[in-house]
């Protein structure tokens, strides 16, 4: 989930992301020996100007049987902030991301994604919406229609340092037609976000896919800016 605000010019941010499934696996049995119910990822972001930042993201699956794969892949990303629209109080940004995935974790070996960022804030309420288009440049779905998805976050600030959050993620359409509901994924998360102070932030949420019988997912992120 991407929001409009980012890293100040000349500063860095390090984030540690953890995703843990409650049980089982959602991949075919042939790939299950390399699938993990827990992924740990690290992201390093640098701000270059008031409008531009870049990031490198590395994903790992450290808790596996001996001899199984640990490195899952990585992303490189750039985000450009365009500012507020003249007619409505919505800030607009755009990110472009190229991803490299290990075949044992994802048949889409390389993908290119363009994600827009629409951000609204008023009082204690903040809402961000991310419509995106993804193209598979190498892998099992290479040459297929680009896939459209959308994600959104709502945040209600309880105090200056504590907020309630709600996230929505989907992958329900190609650029030509909607996917069958059995193939579509709609995930909902509820959680909290905390400003710990001294440049530290922490978020924790619990979610589930509401369109198929998949494991519950716990995700957390801790960030530090310097």
CATH superfamily: monomeric porin ompg
CATH topology (fold) name? Porin
Uncertain parts: 25-36, 174-178
- Under CATH at level 1, the class stands as Mainly Beta
The SSE string, one letter per element, is EEEEEEEEEEEEE
Q: Given the C-alpha coordinates, what overall shape results?
A: globular
What's the count of strands? 13
Describe the overall structure:
The protein has 226 residues and is mainly β. The protein has one domain (12-225): Beta Barrel (Porin). Helix content is 0%, strand content 62%. It has strands at 12-21, 38-47, 52-60, 71-84, 90-101, 108-122, 125-139, 147-157, 162-171, 173-174, 185-197, 200-209, 217-225. The protein has a twelve-stranded antiparallel β-barrel. Strand 8 (147-157) and strand 9 form a beta hairpin.
Report a brief summary of the structure.
The protein has about 230 residues and is mostly beta strands. The protein has strands at about 10-20, 40-45, 50-60, 70-85, 90-100, 110-120, 125-140, 145-155, 160-170, 175, 185-195, 200-210, 215-225.
Label this structure with key terms.
62% strand; 12-stranded antiparallel barrel; mainly beta; globular; Porin; 226 residues
List the helices and strands and how they pair.
Blueprint: E1 12-21, E2 38-47, E3 52-60, E4 71-84, E5 90-101, E6 108-122, E7 125-139, E8 147-157, E9 162-171, E10 173-174, E11 185-197, E12 200-209, E13 217-225
Antiparallel strand pairs: 1-2, 1-13, 2-3, 3-4, 4-5, 5-6, 6-7, 7-8, 8-9, 8-10, 9-11, 11-12, 12-13
